[in-house]
Amino acid sequence: MAASLEVKNLTKSYQRKGQPPFVAVRDLSFEVMPGEIFGLLGPNGAGKSTTINCLTGFYPPTAGEILIEGFDIHQSPKKAKQHLGVCSQEDTLDTDFDVLDQMLRYGTFYRLDRFQIVKRARELLETLGLMEKSNELIENLSGGMRRKLQVARALIANPKVLVLDEPTTGLDPDARRILWQLLTDNRKLGMATLLSTHYMEEAERLCDRIAILFQGAILDLDTPQKLIEKHIGIEIIEEEIRPGVFWKRNPNLEDVFLKLTGKSLSAGEES
To answer: Exposed (0-12), middle (13-18) or buried (19+): which is 65, by Cβ within 10 Å?
Structure first.
């Protein structure tokens, strides 16, 4: 089975005036298979956003190759992007439109007929709890609703490859779990998903494999369980949460991340 997304020896550097080039991403290689949710984890400044901007076609790579369903995102952008759905970290919604109109207009970029677009838009808005807001102007939506709409918009054409950059930031727990179920359903349909997140529970629950990124390079790549077993082990961890009070827990991905990078995933700070 061929990979839906292939990243081959990706390097991205920036030339700063009077200074040597800054290498934000160095020689990254990984692939995401159909029906796989692939996690990209790293503290702030690790190169996640640069990687995502390269593989979605916003930044040209300094070296390397990125293939979406076999099409190079930079050499054949129109063909590659017909198979790609993107929810970026930034809010890219057009506030001049209402919710449903935003979905319909975006669907036309994929050359879908209006019946297909309307049907799919209504399904997604219903699933994400936005149907009652379908005629609401986007500028009147809350931050959480806008985030859900960005995810819905990314899914309008049932893309072969879905790229999500911190999609659940700002969502309440119920909305987050609805999105988790949606991603799980899409996995069963063969959609390849690249997920960047700061929520460790989210990564451990959803991802089939995870790449831990630090200073522009992949430190390790494996399933969540194998990463834990390899770097931490399977023994119960006992922590003193306050004087004389101990808490026993299973090792998790946060332990792996701290050990490999010395940083906290959630805050990107020194541990």
So the answer is: middle
